[in-house]
Amino acid sequence: MNWNQLLSTKRFGMEDYHENRKDDRSEFQRDYDRLIFSAPFRRLQNKTQVFPLPGSVFVHNRLTHSLEVACVGRSLGVNVSHQLKSRGSETPFTGEIGAIVSAACLAHDMGNPPFGHSGEKAISTYFSEGNGISLKNHLSENEWKDITCFEGNANAFRLLTHQFNGRRTGGFVLTYSTLAAIVKYPYSSVFADEKKQKFGFFEAEKPDFEKIASALGMEKSPLNQNRYMRHPLVYLVEAADDICYQIMDIEDAHKLKILSTEETKSLLLNFFDEEKKSRRLDTLKMVSDVNEQIAYLRSSVIGLLIDQCSDAFIENEKSILSGTFNSVLIKQLPESSVSAYRRCSEVAVRKIYCSPEVLDVELSGYKIILTLLDHLTTAVLSPQKSYSEQLLKRIPEQYETNSASTYGKIMSVLDYISGMTDVYALDLYRKITGISIPGI
């Protein structure tokens, strides 16, 4: 792969109109702005990140997380572009790497269903273990794998590229480079790892991804011919996400008193050597507000990780461009940072992700998603039934419930459900089950 080909302003769905615009914004800044003003992005404000949606204490939701990831991603991209220029690797769009990465970071979670990762799991298990298993013989092997391993990353690519009813060709009509930068797993569901079950695009969007990959010079991976090379900027998007969710979850856990102040300070100070740790402890003495102390340490850690991940990218640029890099940037940092990050992960798994507050949301979300899937899938597959006819009126016209194929009908239900906010899903669940009746 080469940077000249990888950085392209060509827009998906508007290839025939590709031109240089007379606009102070770059094409990649236009991507960012288009995403910010979109309805699916706004809906992230009511989607769970880790903790329940805020009550008296404000913690992160999908929207605030995505905005922070975009900020970190922009810094990573700017650092990398500066280093590429200093090494003589400049291309016409090298200076735009920060804008591409930040736009991709904004979009990276847009395909996630309500209730965090439990929403993804609920969709998968409905078809692999629940009532949806009866549909297996009506789908191809690839189609069945898509829905039994439902993946938010693949759904984000679909959301951004699919032409829904009444919408224009190309979906969001983003640049090829921005779209490629969100595909963490550049292969279809049938080639996903058995354990992780991650993949980058559904069978319906396979031709679209292949078109983009071909245009950008993303060939089949030398490590696995069933997969494509990752676009290099995926590594920066992934690093920005890794940095934010891990460090910000620690700060949120402190606000919710899941972690003590001393334990939180210790986790964050572990990233620094003795000299830098001492300087930060001196700064903390000037601040009496405990939350501000944690915020200061959090920002210091994020700044450190941005610099180290940028350096790791440049150090591994050759293997990244050749498609032989087989790691994540966060694992290529100095041992002190890798160790401190690992410690944060261990504490997060033990104390945060298994906390009652988090588990309660996951359990409730699981039940809500399974119930909606059961009712809506039955409705699209048996539209002639009286109840189905009433329920189908609830689904917006943009979703292709009258698709000619069983796969298309199921995907229309998944499009509808995955686009819901937690609050909307809960409200529809209550109405469908009769728990809540409007006006009574």
Any overview of this molecule?
The chain has 440 residues and is an all-alpha fold. Among the domains are: 3-113 and 150-233, Hypothetical protein af1432 (Orthogonal Bundle), CATH 1.10.3210.10; 253-353, putative deoxyguanosinetriphosphate triphosphohydrolase fold (Orthogonal Bundle). Helix content is 57%, strand content 2%. The chain is built from 20 helices and two strands. The chain has a two-stranded antiparallel ribbon with strand order 1-2. Helix 4 (62-86) packs across helix 14 (290-315) and helix 6 packs across helix 17 (356-381). The longest helix is centred in the C-terminal third of the chain and has 26 residues, at 290-315. The radius of gyration is 22 Å and the shape is globular. 45% of the residues are buried.
